[in-house]
Design a protein that fits this description.
This protein has one helix and nine strands, in the order H-E-E-E-E-E-E-E-E-E. The strands form two sheets. Strands 1, 2, 3, 6 and 7 form a five-stranded antiparallel sheet that branches. The chain has a four-stranded antiparallel sheet with strand order 5-4-8-9, with no helix packed on it. A hairpin with a 5-residue loop joins strand 8 and strand 9. With about 150 residues, the chain is mainly beta. The chain has a domain of about 100 residues.
């Protein structure tokens, strides 16, 4: 009963003075600072290095094929996103275990095709997609690359 009396009397409450006037209604959180990136894009330049292009929003409508070649039956592409200033390699129509890599200025990222015959590499930072090259190595031993950057 004593505790209830303390509670009802307001003893122990924070009695800091607050400005008079109506309390602001809670609203949505303030948006983050403008990043200058398109909606859905999560990185730019160096922040994209080694990241998944699709998870970072760099693929889809922001990605374009800037070089391609066929190795065996596999299509090998260099994909570039100007929104992210980064490139990656993609392989399709490949066999499980065939690999693809993207190379630029000493940086190499690779990936292996799985059961669906597709794979794409993590991104590398480049000022233009034509500064990156892509190579495929098929399990059969066949190798091939897009034009060298």
């Amino acid at each position: 009963m004593f505790a209830a009396a303390l509670y009802l009397s307001g003893f122990g409450e924070d009695r800091t003075r607050r400005p008079a006037g109506p309390a602001a209604a809670p609203g949505p959180a303030a948006p983050p600072a403008a990043s200058g990136l398109p909606v859905g894009v999560g990185c730019h330049r160096g922040a994209c290095d080694g990241q998944d292009p699709h998870a970072m929003g760099c693929g889809g409508s922001y990605g374009a094929t800037v070089a391609s070649t066929v190795v065996g039956t596999a299509l090998v592409e260099v994909r570039y996103s100007s929104a992210c200033d980064a490139a990656w390699a993609r392989i399709s129509r490949a066999a499980p275990g065939d690999t693809v890599e993207v190379t630029t200025a000493g940086t190499v990222r690779s990936a292996a095709a799985d059961a669906d015959g597709d794979a794409y590499t993590p991104m590398v930072v480049v000022p233009a997609g034509t500064d990156a090259g892509a190579c495929a190595r098929l399990r059969s031993g066949t190798e091939g690359c897009t034009a060298a950057p």
